[in-house]
Specification:
The complex is a heterotrimer. By secondary structure, chain B is of the alpha+beta class. Chain B contains 9 helices and 10 strands. Chain B is 30% helix and 13% strand. The chains are: A mainly alpha, B alpha+beta, C mainly alpha.
C-alpha cells in the first residue's frame, strides 16, 4: 500500500508528537515534591484547640466551595456570621478570619496550589498577608 | 455494524450533550454542604430598612473638613489616588454647587454657597437605574436600601456607569495596587476591569459602626465644638437622627426630576439659613 | 460547501493573508490591553464607552439590514432579489460576529462573560441584547447555509426553513431596537433619552447596511464571475434612498426638539458635537464631514438619473456609509457622555492601540465575510442560469 504525501504526513506526525509530549520531557529531572503545607504560624500556635473553621478533610476537599458560599452570604445577603457544624461562630472574611491563622500563604496555600497548577485570582483583590522573607 | 456519517454525528452530539449536562446533575447530587452549618447576621450589626444620609453643607468650612472626610473613606477602602484624571477612582469627592445641582443653577445664590465645595457620593437611590441595567446583578439593591457592589461578579461592561445620572461610579482602567501608598489590610482592593463606588460602609454596618465619612465628620465637629455636618440613619425609623434633621431643616436632593429617589439629602444653608 | 473557501486565486489568498495580518496585530494589542487594562484606550471616568461600543452599535445596524432583502423576496415575491439575499444573510453573519467581538474586547473582565448566562437578568437590556444577537447569528447561519446548499443541489430548500426565515424578519428589527434601548432608557443621558432612538437606529441601519451591500455587490461583479444584476442593485438603491431620507428627517426632528425647547440638557450635547462646548471641540470637524457627506449622498441618490449610474451610485453609497459610520459609530456614543453628569466636558479620542484593536475586529469580520462570500459566489457561479426557487 502506497502512502501518498508520505513526506508531509510523517513530518506532521513527528511535529504533533513533539508538541503533545512536550510537557513530559520538559519536566524531566525537575523535582516533584509532595506539597507540605505548614500550619505553624504564630496565630495557630496561640490557639488552644488547633481547629479550623471546619474539619481538615472537609476543608481539603471543599474549601473553595465554602469560600464561594461565604462570598455570597457576606456580599449578597449581608450575613457575616458563620456557625460551623460544631456550633462555633466565625466572622466570614477571607482576609481577617482564614488568613488570620494561615498567615503564611506561601508555605500553606501556595504549596498545594503550585503543585496542582492552580492559580486562584482571589489575591488580585484580597490582600494576602505580608510574609517575612525567611 | 455499518453506520453512516449522519448517524455518527447524531450519536456523537447526543453523547456530548448528555455528558456535559450530566456534570451539574452529579454535582448537585454530591453532598458538599454540611447539614449543621448555617449563616447569621452579627447581633452587633446595625440594621435598617432604608439607610440614608443627610449632609449639612453649612457645617463644612475649611479645606481640612473636606479632606478628613474623603481620606477617612478612601484610606480604609484602599481607593487608589491615580495621577491621570481620566482613570480616577473616587467614592466621595467634592465639586461646585453648579456641578452638584445642574438644573438648579442660580446666579444670585449667596457667594458662600456659590464658591463652596459640595460633597458628592453615591446616592443609594430607592429606584436605581444602575441596578436596572446591570446584566449580572453584580450591582444590586439590598433589603436595607444600600445599592451594593459584588466585585466577584462584575464583568466590567460599564453599563451601570452609563446609567448613573450622578456620575457616582468609577472603573478600574488599570491595576489599582501600584498606586496604593498605604493598604488597609482588613479590606480588599479591587482589580483591573471592575466598577466600584461607595457602599455606605456595609462592612462597618455589619460590625455596628456607622459609615467612616459620617463618623469622621462628627468626630471633627466635636473636636471643634461645632454641630455635626453629616448624619446617617434609617429613614423608616421615625426616631432616627436623619428623620429628626429632615423634619426641621429644608433639604434638597440631586436631580429629583429623574425619579431615582436619592437617599442622600443636602442642607444648603448660606448666610441666614446656616 | 466549506471546501469552496479553501480554493482560490492568488489574489484571494493575498487578501486573506492581508486581513489575517491586521487581525494578528490587533490581537497582539488586545493582549496588551488584557494585561494592562482598558486604561490604554481613550476612555475615562466620564466617557466610559468609546470606539468599541460605537462600532458595535453601528454594526448591529449593518447586520439588521439583511431584512431589507428578505422582506421583498420572501414576503412579496420580488424575484429579482433571489440571487442576492444570501449576500445580505452572510453580511449579517459577519456583522454580528464583529458585534460580539467588539463587546468582548470592551469588557473589563472578559473571562467572566458567562456570568450574563449564569445569572440571567431580564430587567437588563444588555441581557436581551445577548439573547437577540446570538439568536440572529444562529438564524442567519442556518438560513444562509441551508438555502445555499439547496441552490447548489438545484432543489427547493426544506419547508421548515420558511418558519426560520419568517422569524428572522421581526428578529432583525428586534436586534436594533434592543440595541437602541440600551441608550434610550437611561435617565441621566439626555442626548439619548429620546423615544425616536430606535426609529433613528432602524432608519440608519436600513440605509447604511444596504449601501454596503451595493458596494459589495459591485465588488463581487468586478472580481468574480457572478453578476448580482443591474436591476437588483437598483432596487436596493431605492431602499437606501428612502431609508436615508427617513434617517436625515429623524435627525432633523432631534435637532428641532433640542433647539426649540432650548433645554440645556438637550442642546449641550448637540452644541458639543457641532460647534464645540466650553472651548472643547475635538469632534466638530468629524461631525460636519458626516453632515456634508449625508447631504451629498442623499442628493446623488434622490435624483433618479444619477442613481441609475452605477458609478455615481457607488460613490453615493460610499459617502453615505462613511457619514453614518461617523454619526453612529462615533458621534452618537461619545456625544451621550458629553457633557458629563456635572455639566463638565471631558473629551474622548481613541488611542493608537485602541484603534488597532478595532481594526483587528473589522478585519476579522471581513475575513468571515470573504470566506462566506467565496462559498456563496462559487455556488452561484456553478449554478449559473438555473432559476432560484425558495
Amino acid at each position: 500500500m502506497k502512502l501518498y504525501n508520505g513526506g508531509k504526513i510523517i513530518t506532521g506526525l513527528i511535529i504533533f508528537l513533539g508538541l503533545v509530549t512536550f510537557p513530559f520531557f520538559y519536566n524531566i529531572g525537575k523535582a516533584n515534591v509532595r506539597p507540605d503545607p505548614k500550619i505553624d504560624t504564630p496565630a495557630i500556635k496561640e490557639l488552644k484547640e488547633k481547629k479550623c473553621v471546619e474539619s481538615k478533610e472537609f476543608m481539603r476537599a471543599e474549601h473553595m466551595k465554602l469560600l464561594n458560599d461565604w462570598r455570597d452570604s457576606a456580599v449578597r445577603d449581608g450575613a457575616r456570621l458563620y456557625v460551623n457544624t460544631e456550633g462555633k461562630a466565625y466572622t466570614i472574611s477571607l482576609q481577617n478570619t482564614c488568613m488570620h491563622c494561615h498567615s503564611n500563604k506561601k508555605k500553606f496555600c501556595d504549596e498545594c496550589h503550585t503543585y496542582m497548577a492552580v492559580n486562584p485570582y482571589c489575591w488580585n483583590c484580597h490582600i494576602a498577608p505580608k510574609e517575612k522573607e525567611t | 455494524m455499518s453506520i453512516d456519517r449522519r448517524q455518527f454525528l447524531k450519536i456523537a452530539g447526543i453523547s456530548t450533550i448528555l455528558g456535559v449536562g450530566g456534570a451539574p446533575v452529579i454535582n448537585w447530587l454530591r453532598n458538599d454542604r454540611l447539614e449543621a452549618s448555617h449563616v447569621l447576621t452579627d447581633e452587633k450589626a446595625l440594621t435598617g430598612k432604608h439607610w440614608a444620609m443627610v449632609i449639612d453643607m453649612s457645617k463644612f468650612e475649611t479645606e481640612e473638613d473636606y479632606r478628613r472626610v474623603i481620606h477617612a473613606c478612601h484610606s480604609i477602602h484602599n481607593v487608589p489616588n491615580l495621577d491621570n484624571p481620566k482613570d480616577s477612582i473616587k467614592w466621595i469627592w467634592t465639586d461646585t454647587y453648579d456641578h452638584t445641582f445642574p438644573g438648579q443653577e442660580n446666579e444670585y445664590v449667596p457667594e458662600e454657597v456659590k464658591h463652596k465645595p459640595f460633597i458628592l457620593l453615591c446616592n443609594h437611590c430607592e429606584n436605581p437605574p444602575c441596578v436596572r441595567v446591570c446584566p449580572t446583578k453584580a450591582t444590586f439593591k439590598r433589603k436595607d436600601g444600600i445599592v451594593m457592589m459584588d466585585q466577584h461578579r462584575c464583568i466590567g461592561c460599564r453599563f451601570c456607569m452609563a446609567a448613573c445620572p450622578f456620575g457616582a461610579r468609577s472603573f478600574n482602567y488599570k491595576d489599582p495596587r501600584p498606586s496604593l501608598k498605604e493598604e488597609n489590610k482588613e479590606y480588599p482592593t479591587r482589580t483591573i476591569g471592575v466598577v466600584e463606588k461607595c457602599t455606605f460602609c456595609f462592612e462597618r454596618l455589619s460590625k455596628g459602626l456607622i459609615p467612616a465619612c459620617v463618623e469622621e465628620s462628627q468626630k471633627a465637629a466635636k473636636e471643634a465644638g461645632k454641630e455635626p455636618g453629616m448624619f446617617f440613619g434609617d429613614l423608616e425609623d421615625p426616631s432616627s437622627e436623619v428623620r429628626k434633621v429632615l423634619s426641621t431643616r429644608y433639604s434638597i436632593r440631586r436631580k429629583p426630576e429623574l425619579g431615582t429617589q436619592p437617599s442622600v439629602f443636602y442642607i444648603i444653608g448660606g448666610a441666614k439659613n446656616a | 460547501m466549506l471546501e469552496k473557501a479553501l480554493v482560490g486565486s492568488r489574489r484571494y489568498w493575498t487578501w486573506l493573508f492581508f486581513l489575517s495580518a491586521i487581525v494578528g496585530i490587533g490581537f497582539i494589542n488586545y493582549l496588551y490591553q488584557f494585561k494592562n487594562g482598558l486604561g490604554i484606550t481613550g476612555m475615562s471616568r466620564d466617557v466610559s464607552w468609546g470606539l468599541y461600543i460605537g462600532q458595535f452599535t453601528f454594526l448591529v445596524g449593518v447586520a439588521a439590514s439583511a431584512v431589507m432583502l428578505v422582506i421583498p423576496y420572501y414576503l412579496h415575491d420580488f424575484k429579482k432579489f433571489g440571487k442576492i439575499v444570501i449576500l445580505g444573510e452572510f453580511l449579517a453573519v459577519a456583522s454580528v460576529t464583529m458585534c460580539i467581538s467588539f463587546i468582548f474586547v470592551d469588557l473589563g473582565q472578559p473571562m467572566r462573560v458567562l456570568n450574563v448566562i449564569l445569572h440571567p437578568t431580564p430587567n437588563s437590556i444588555l441581557f436581551w441584547d445577548m439573547v437577540v444577537l446570538s439568536g440572529y447569528l444562529f438564524l442567519n447561519i442556518v438560513i444562509g447555509w441551508v438555502t445555499l446548499s439547496s441552490d447548489r443541489k438545484g432543489v427547493k430548500p426544506p419547508s421548515w426553513i420558511k418558519s426560520l426565515i419568517y422569524l428572522s424578519i421581526p428578529w432583525a428589527f428586534s436586534i436594533h431596537t434592543v440595541t437602541a434601548f440600551l441608550y434610550a432608557g437611561l435617565p441621566g443621558r439626555h442626548f439619548w433619552l429620546s423615544a425616536i432612538m430606535a426609529a433613528r437606529f432602524l432608519a440608519s441601519a436600513f440605509a447604511g447596511g444596504p449601501a454596503l451591500l451595493i458596494m459589495l455587490a459591485l465588488i463581487v461583479r468586478k472580481f468574480t464571475k457572478f453578476d448580482p444584476g443591474k436591476e437588483p442593485i437598483q432596487a436596493v438603491g431605492k431602499i437606501v434612498t428612502y431609508a436615508m431620507i427617513a434617517n436625515v428627517f429623524f435627525l432633523g426632528l432631534e435637532f428641532f426638539t433640542a433647539f426649540y425647547s432650548q433645554i440645556p440638557g438637550h442642546t449641550h450635547p448637540f452644541k458639543y458635537l457641532y460647534t464645540g462646548l466650553e472651548g472643547h471641540g475635538k469632534l466638530v470637524p468629524l461631525m460636519w464631514i458626516s453632515t456634508i457627506l449625508a447631504v451629498v449622498s442623499l442628493l446623488l441618490l434622490v435624483v433618479p438619473q444619477w442613481r441609475r449610474s452605477e458609478r455615481i451610485l457607488a460613490f453615493a453609497c460610499g459617502a453615505l456609509f462613511i457619514s453614518l459610520w461617523i454619526d453612529k459609530g462615533f458621534g452618537l456614543v461619545v456625544g451621550g457622555f458629553i457633557p458629563n453628569p456635572f455639566e463638565g466636558v471631558t473629551e474622548y479620542w481613541p488611542t493608537l492601540r485602541e484603534t488597532s484593536i478595532a481594526l483587528g475586529v473589522w478585519a476579522l469580520g471581513f475575513l468571515v465575510l470573504t470566506l462566506l462570500y467565496k462559498i456563496a459566489i462559487s455556488v452561484r457561479e456553478e449554478t449559473e442560469g438555473i432559476e432560484i426557487e425558495h
